[in-house]
Amino acid sequence: MQIDKALFYFFNVKIANPVFDILMPFITKDVNLRIFLVLIWIGLLIFGGKYGRIVAILLIPAIAISDQLSSHIIKPLVSRIRPCHELEGVRLLVGCGSGLSFPSSHAVNSFTVATLISRFYKKHAVYLFSFSFLVSFSRIYVGVHYPADVVAGMVIGLIVGFSVVYLWIYGSELYKNKFSAGVEKGKNF
What we know:
Blueprint: H1 2-14, H2 18-28, H3 30-47, H4 49-78, H5 83-86, H6 105-120, H7 125-141, H8 147-187
C-alpha cells in the first residue's frame, strides 16, 4: 500500500500543473462523461449501420453490468476509503464524495465502453483506449482515487467488455445454428 500512496502523491502533487488543473476536472466530471457517451451512442445508432446498432444495444447491458458490479458489489466488499478522506496534503480539485474508492467506477465504465466499441470498430481502438486512460488518470490527478483503484477498474472494465462481446458472439452463433437447423429440418417435410 505504500507504493500506491507514493504513486498517488506523485500523480496528484508532483506533476501538478496549470493545464491539468483545468483539463482533468473537466474530463472527470460525470455530466461531461455522460454527454460524451450519449453522443457516441446516438452516433452509433444513426451513422453506425448494422454494427453501430448492435454496439449501441450492447452498451446498455455492458454499462449496467460494469457500473453495478463496481459500485454495488466490489466497492462495498472492499470498503476502501478515498485518499481525499484519509491522506494529508491531497490536492483535491473536485468534490471528494462520500463513496468508496476501490475500484474506480469511471475506469471500469470507460474501459468497458472502449473494449466493446473497439471490438467492432478496431481502427478507433487507440482513440477509445486513450480517452479511457485519460478519464482513469484524471481520477488520481483530481485526488479521489488511488492508482490501484484505477488499474483495477481498467482490468474489470476490460473483463466486462470482453465478456459482453463474447456472450453476444456466442449467442449470435447459437441463434444462427439453431435457425439454420430449423430451416434444414423444414426442407425435409
